[in-house]
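Re: that chain you flagged

S.,

Sorry for the slow reply, it's been a week of failed gels. I finally had a moment to sit down with the sequence you sent. For the record, here it is as I used it:
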Amino acid sequence: MSYKIKKPLVLKNILWADFVAGFSTGVIGLIFSHQLTTLLGLPYLFIVWVSAITLLYALNALGLALMKSTIARLVLVLVYANWLWTLISVGLLYLHFGNASMLGKAFLILQIIVVGGLAFAEGKQLTKVKHKVLSNY
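Prediction finished late last night. Pasting the structure tokens below so you have them in one place:
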């Protein structure tokens, strides 16, 4: 099955938003991980891992945004990865909600909303291409 991009400019804007959100979250999380542990009420390693993974997602979105002609299949991989991270984030919410501060709880919930929203928005810019069947008759 192949895919094509409905509106390349709209997709590029979504990818840039994905990059900016993920990059800022990742960098801030890595630089201020010790302070965020206290502020968010979340474990240090949790903050470091989530920040690093978010940063990797952001760099992937940046790579796609910088492509002259974005490859739909690669966007599809990012969409699936974002949905997977959304599901993992639901699990993280379940595991850490009880010990998190109010800001930590807000972060856990926002992570699900933002990543899921990006997955949805990026996925909406892809459409399946139906191939014509060639006949020998």
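What I noticed first: The radius of gyration is 18 Å.

Talk soon,
D.
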